[in-house]
């Protein structure tokens, strides 16, 4: 299952806020066996959000959108998603029923209860702004605690073969490892990534535990300081 993550926020683009939502979703989706194939950040601009959602929804199995939900003028994500799927914004009956028994915005009727027509309402157990599912697009709040709470309500939709990952620590320069990394790729059905720092971490990833273990063992035998 190939997934795209779309983060909305001028503050993310300006470097004022670190995109922890995308990092957390990447880890959580990978744990469930889904593949995060792309991460995109766009400003709080309705046209930019609409265009990007439309593009990603046709290219990936699912799109997760975070940010831009709430009562302020820059919270335009829900309207943009509705436009991307040619839907009107309407007072959603499930949202209306939910806010009849939960505290909401002072003007909840005009904000939190309005979702794209035909969307699935997703309650927010950690805040007010609800999430929504429109076709293959999952709209989540931007506040990290709220994003996590809403995602867990839809997490079951994201499945796949959970990858097996092994890391080999190498006491050699990364440039000296090219031949052996190529050797792993040629002999084993795994993906390989190398990450220099204090030594080099070579990460092997695959869906077959025996294959990944064999690849890691092969590499450890052929590098200095292989751990």
Summarize the structure.
This protein is an alpha/beta fold and 227 residues long. 35% of the residues lie in helices and 26% in strands. It has helices at residues 10-13, 20-31, 46-59, 77-84, 93-100, 144-154, 178-187, 209-220, and strands at residues 2-8, 35-42, 62-66, 89-91, 114-116, 120-122, 131-134, 137-140, 164-170, 191-197, 199-206.
In total, the number of strands is 11
Number of helices: 8
Question: Which H/E pattern describes the elements?
Answer: EHHEHEHEHEEEEHEHEEH
- Coarse shape: elongated
Distance between the termini: 32 Å
Helix content percent band: 25-40%
Main beta-sheet annotation:
6 strands, mixed
Strand order of the largest sheet: 2-1-3-8-7-6
Structural class: alpha/beta
Proportion of residues in β-strands: 25-35%
Report mean pLDDT, rounded to a whole number: 92
Which stretches are low in confidence, meaning pLDDT under 50 for 5 or more residues running?
Answer: none
Please state the CA-atom Rg, rounded to the nearest Å.
21 Å
